[in-house]
Amino acid sequence: MVEVVVTGIGLVSPLGDSLEASWRQLLAGKSAIRLQQPFAELKQLPLALIGQQPVYLQALTRLVVSAAIADAGLKLPLTDCGVVVGSSRSQQATWERLARRHDRSEEWLNTLPHMNAIASARQIGASLVPVLAPMAACATGIWALFQGYELIKTGQCQRAIAGAAEAPVTPLTLAGFERMGALAQTGSYPFDLQRQGLVLGEGASVLVLESAELAKQRSARIYGQILSFGLSADAYYATKPDIEGKSAIAAVKQCLDRAQLSPTDIDYIHAHGTATPIGDRHEAGLISYLFPQVPVSSTKGATGHTLGASGALGAAFCLKALQQQLLPPCVGLERSEFDINLVTTGDCSKINRALCFSFGFGGQNAVMAVAKYE
Fold first, then answer.
1. Which of 47, 63, 138, 338 is most buried by its number of CB atoms within 10 A?
2. How many domains is the chain built from?
């Protein structure tokens, strides 16, 4: 049976320009969320920006792909490396810019949703391999990792880069979420009694996945092993989860069953935790039902909600927790509404297996299990 391991991680978030920098800030309980007004036509809102102005998707993706390859100790070109790079908003910032100037040039063709994945394939010199560009709302990151995992498990590749990038701070995105009443007005407070809603954040994370055999042949450093995934869809409502949570629970159980695990085998859960009233209630209900004692945290109070990239960031933080045996805190939480084991400060803990949750609009549920590699 083919085992899939992670040998490299590239991550950029509002907390820092690398996984290490972001992890240090996260453990210290820091938040990158600040009141910002990047667009004169819109009011000031809390946002988590990487720089002083909204980032460009292509530049952000190129940066994390390069970081992941370097972290894995690989050299280009990687002709036989599969590529899976997703995004839920894709090149929307460019689309809005072109629409404002009524541009009818062929530049539109360079901004189609799959072009970012193609650019990543060109960047690493991949050829004659699958190049995929999943879009599954906020579940995109874990979907991308699942597809990269499947490329290796099915023997299509022995190595793949997989993850997601998001540059969602655009006028239309902000206006849309504001119209829905989903945006917080002061900050992001996952699972808190006084939570207001989500805070948009920029970010990207790409992982180098390899068969364990290939990783051992080249004596690669291994962050951890990917055990399994669970995927489902509510088919209930465009923006609200099914209040009974049956489909989300099914995704979790599917993930556990595939890895031959029980809920008591899980040592940590990286929750989706967007700080929306309905979303957190839905997720907390699932956790209290299946994992009443398991330590839980959401990192969105620190990074903001990076939409499609959030699951890929969460997976990277899970792997870092396994590597360092440290639990990241639920930044922004002061008084929990729910009776679940929420982590409030970065703390040492024995972590052998962890789950990462993503629950996207349209009821798109994605769950990933990772473990220390022995």
1. 138
2. 2
Alpha carbon distances (Å) from 333 to 100, 187, 197, 300, 352 = 40, 11, 13, 11, 25
| Given 138, 255, 318, 356, the catalytic residue | 138
Q: What is the mean pLDDT of residues 316-327?
A: 97
Domain boundary among 160, 188, 217: 217
Which residue of the set 81, 157, 255, 305 is catalytic?
A: 305
In the annotation, is 138 catalytic? yes
Is residue 201 domain-shared with residue 63, that is, in the same domain?
A: yes
Last residue of a domain, one of 217, 248, 281: 217
pLDDT band of 309, cuts 50, 70, 90: very high
Q: Is 270 a catalytic residue?
A: no
What is the CATH number for 196?
A: 3.40.47.10
Tell me how many helices (H) and strands (E) the chain has.
Answer: 11, 14
CA distance 45 to 47: 6
> Is 240 within a domain?
yes
8 Å CB contact between 189 and 31: no
**pLDDT > 80? residue 105:** no
